[in-house]
Structure formats: C-alpha cells, structure tokens
Write a structure and sequence with these properties.
By secondary structure, this protein is of the alpha+beta class. The chain has a domain of about 170 residues. Strands 2, 3, 4, 5, 6, 7, 8, 9, 10 and 11 form a 10-stranded mixed β-sheet that branches. Helix 8 links the parallel strand 6 and strand 7. The chain starts with 18 loop residues before the first strand and ends in an 8-residue tail after the last helix.
Length: about 475
C-alpha cells in the first residue's frame, strides 16, 4: 500500500459532528438493553447520594466505554466525541463516572455481582448458542490471576505468588466443546491472598448461576481447577450442586505412595497432536504416558473423605537430572497428577487426561481481560476497583454474545475481544437524518458487513439494511 497524494495536498480537521468512530455500539448496547442491563441495575444497585443517581445509565456508559476499548476512567471521553450524543442519551463525563465508582462499598459490589449474573442469563436468552444445549459436559473452570498495579497507595495491593505488586482476581468461567468461555462469577481480593481463600463461595455462586441458564439443564457439569483449589470446601460445594470435579493435586506423601502402586503395564502411551512446552523445564515435549488408580481424597479427615480416581501423567525427565555423565539404570520420569470424580465409564483415562488439560482455557480469558478493560485498575479505592472488575466481566460477556449472534457458525464466536472490537464495534460511520430517521453510512466493502448487519437486525430489527 502506498500513499497516493503529495504531502502538500493533505489537510485534516476535527470538525465533523456527524461522525462516530464506534458505530458498533449501536447494536451491541441495544443488545445489552434487551438483555436487561439498565433495568437490572436500577432494580438491584442502590449507591447512595447523588453519586448513585441514574445508576443504570452510568453502568451502561462504563460498559460501552469498555466495549470501545477504554481501560481507564479517563478513556471514557471517547463516548463524547463526534455524533455520539445523537445516538445515545445520558453520555456521562469521566469525572461523573469516576465519582460514581468511588461511591461504591462492598455491599454495592455484591449488588453489581447480582446484576452481572442475571445479565448473563439474559444474554443466554438472546442467544442460546452462547452456552448451547446438548449432550456431554459443561466445563466450569476456576482460577485466579494477579492484576499488576504501580501505585503503592491502592487499597489491597500487595505482593502475591507472582512476585509483583497487585490485586488478586478470581474468575469462574463456563464453556462447552461447542462454545467459547463466558464468565459466571468474579471476585477481587487483596494481592497477597491465597488461591483457596473464598473459593467455596465462588464455586457455589458460579454453579448457581449456571443452573439459571435454561439450555444447561440436561448437561452434566465438570469443575476443573489447579492444585490451589484442592480442598474439601471446594469439593463439597461442587458435589452439593451435582457437579463432578477434576482438580490437580500436589505431590504430597499420600499421592506419591499411590503413584508407586501403579504397575508398569498400567501406563498407556499418548501422543500430543503437536509438541507442547513443559511449564517446569521450558522444553518441548511430544510424548507422555497416563495411568490411574483408585484414590480417596482427604482420607485423614473424618467425615470428609471423597472417593474417586487419581489420574497420573508422566513425561521423560529432560531437565538437569537427565544430563548426567553416567546414564541412569532406569528411565526417570516426572509426574503430574489430578483427582477426579468422573466415572471411568464416561471418560476413560486418556479422555479425562485430555479433558483436564483443557482447563488452561481460563488462562486465555485472563489474558483477554488484561488486554482490555483490566489493563489497569483505575482507582485507589478497593471497592471501586472491585466494581470495575465486575463491569469488565459484563463487557466481556456482552462482547462474546454479540459475536455469537453476528456469526453463529463463523470464526468470530471464538475470537478474542480485540478482534470482535475491531470487526464489530469500532466501525466508523457518518450519521445522516432523513424523514425524522437516522441512517448510519458505514465504510463501503467492510469485510464484516454481513456479520454487522446480522447483529443490527437481531438487536434493533430495523426496516432495512443496505449491503452492496
């Protein structure tokens, strides 16, 4: 591509009040309205004083800004450019939205949690493909991540397991083999907290939200987590909700004794479709072996025993121990184990090992959020940042629903937020008025015009959309 004008022939002016840079907010925010975002906020959120007035419109403004790419309160200015006020009412200034967030207390954050969970249910009614019905499992993955902050004055910020100063966000996401993940529930915690703190409540809330999704009634639920969530509290919450568990275990003496009892002929070789990088050594591995043995978790705790299967994967030792001058008499292995309550007749050893490794899908959600609204936690007040996390999750789920509606059989339904924003939201348009109607003139030959039109048709049912 080459510039086809001389420099002297070029000029620019920011003077057109009929242009908008994010015309995709029209169908997406209309979708949010249909799913009940403003109505639910007015019903459940009660922030006191004048700062909490018109809470529904203020929450919608914050979500709209995040959809368009805002990752700080100051970035909300992008909602007040060009012809945005001709398309939307009550477009609040960043200072007003900042005051609104700083008025939050912990109880208001929990109220906003209630809005987020009910809003997700509304989105699943708008698009049943968001969490589709069918046979097999719905996977619920739980994990926490550190959101790094720079200022030491932020409430709750401290050094956690990652060695950086930040706040700890725990998420529970749901997905199926046919759909990309959506966030069921979320919590913001101080940076130095352990993974297991409050996990019982997060699991119970997440599974309660899932039961309210109409299409999920026939499906079985499998909770997946890493070793930080290996606790009886997590297991009991899952079992009370009728869910199976698949949780990584640490190599404690009890686990080592169970692995030693596995005979050599019990190991089944598995081949990875492509070499994967081992997180401990950084080396690429392309083969491993799996086996399983019956196991009772928490056997030493009276009344808390849980029976299931201990599934073990072993890979050849490729670290420094394998590089000795004198070769070893026997092959050396490194072991990775997890405990599951899934019956063997439903998922055999190889299948459950592959299913458990797909728990890494939640890392994609963490990375997606950190590349969007959670790039920063904008306030020094803890409750304001906790509310920001909930709003970021609402925006994430709304973006996912918009992509599924726009392209139910296309690649957008599994795309990251940045891709969906680039193709459906940040579409420039010129506003024209004729016969008391608004018309958006969008770029000619827009590659995703069909998807954009499908989303607009679903959310607004306009009289007609012209696509050359």
């Amino acid at each position: 591509m080459q510039f086809n004008h001389t420099v002297s022939a070029l000029s620019a002016a920011f003077d057109d009040s009929n242009l908008v840079s994010a015309a995709g907010l029209v169908p997406v925010m209309r979708l949010a309205e249909r799913a009940g975002l403003s109505t639910l906020t007015q019903q459940h959120l009660s922030v006191p004083s004048d700062k909490g007035a018109n809470a529904g419109a203020k929450v919608a403004s914050l979500v709209a800004g995040m959809l368009a790419g805002a990752d700080s309160i100051e970035d909300m200015r992008l909602l007040r450019q060009g012809g945005m006020r001709r398309l939307f009412d009550r477009v609040y200034a960043p200072s007003t939205l900042g005051s609104f967030l700083r008025a939050f207390e912990f109880g208001h954050v929990r109220q906003l949690d209630a809005v987020a969970s009910r809003f997700l249910t509304g989105l699943t009614r708008e698009s049943t493909e968001l969490l589709p019905a069918g046979e097999g499992y719905t996977f619920v993955d739980i994990d926490d991540t550190i959101i790094e902050v720079e200022g030491y004055l932020k409430q709750g910020a401290s050094f956690g397991y990652s060695g950086v100063r930040g706040l700890n966000a725990v998420l529970a996401v749901a997905s199926t083999p046919e759909s990309a993940p959506v966030v069921l529930t979320q919590r913001l915690r101080k940076g130095s907290t352990s993974s297991a703190r409050g996990a019982k409540r997060v699991v119970s809330d997440a599974l309660a939200v899932l039961t309210r999704v109409p299409a999920q009634a026939p499906r079985q639920v499998l909770l997946r987590a890493d070793s930080g969530y290996y606790s009886h509290a997590v297991f009991s919450s899952a079992q009370k909700a009728g869910a199976d568990v698949s949780v990584t275990v640490r190599m404690n003496p009890s686990i080592k004794r169970a692995i030693e009892q596995i005979t050599d002929d019990a190991w089944t070789p598995i081949e990875y479709p492509g070499a994967i990088r081992d997180k401990d050594t950084g080396r690429l591995i392309s083969r491993a072996e799996v086996a399983e043995t019956p196991y009772t978790a928490f056997a030493s705790k009276k009344g808390q025993q849980v029976t299931g299967r201990l599934v073990v994967r072993r890979i050849p030792e490729l670290g420094p121990k394998a590089l000795r001058e004198q070769p070893t008499l026997f092959d050396t292995w490194r072991f990775h184990a997890f405990f599951t309550t899934v019956p063997a007749d439903e998922l055999d050893t190889t299948a459950i090992d592959q299913t458990h490794r797909h728990h890494a899908i939640i890392e994609q959600v963490n990375a997606d959020l950190k590349a969007s609204a959670l790039a920063h936690l904008p306030s020094g007040k803890y409750a304001a940042n906790a509310a920001w996390l909930v709003l970021a999750v609402i925006a994430f789920n709304l973006t996912r629903a918009a992509a599924v509606i726009a392209a139910p059989d296309g690649k957008l339904r599994r795309a990251v937020t940045a891709t969906i924003r680039r193709t459906l939201v940040n579409v420039p348009a010129r506003i024209a008025r004729s016969a008391r109607k608004l018309r958006l003139h969008l770029p000619e030959h827009w590659p995703w015009a069909q998807e954009w039109a499908a989303l607009l048709t679903h959310s607004t049912s306009p009289p007609g959309i012209a696509i050359p």
